[in-house]
Amino acid sequence: MFYPAYIHSDADGSASGFFPDVPGCFFAGDSLDDAFLDARDALVAHFETLLEMSDELPLPGNVEMHLEKSPDDYLGGQWLLVDIDMKQFDGRAERINITMPRRLLAKIDSFVSEHPQFSNRSAFLAEAARRVLPT
Length: 135
Hints:
By secondary structure, the chain is an alpha+beta fold. Helix content is 39%, strand content 16%.
């Protein structure tokens, strides 16, 4: 999932930024590149804190929405899209028993065997559900 971040460079070469959709989440670095690298770490740490406090994780908006809503807040900087694997925030796994057509199951098994990012059927089905359901 991509979260937009807004970042400013300072005269000394350092940079800092924030995530408009994630109140209180800031990042910085001694250079623009360092700040880019810190952005993902800041977002992950912020999300972990929100989960510990039993808060919901905010969904990302898009850059155009932010520019339409308050264009003066975004002058002189640049946008960065930070890709976060939301699977790390899912929580404990739970075993379930499901029924589905054998032909569909065969297609899933074939797809999983051809795509190593899915370790098994469960990983595939979980990812398919994440893509369809709102977080």
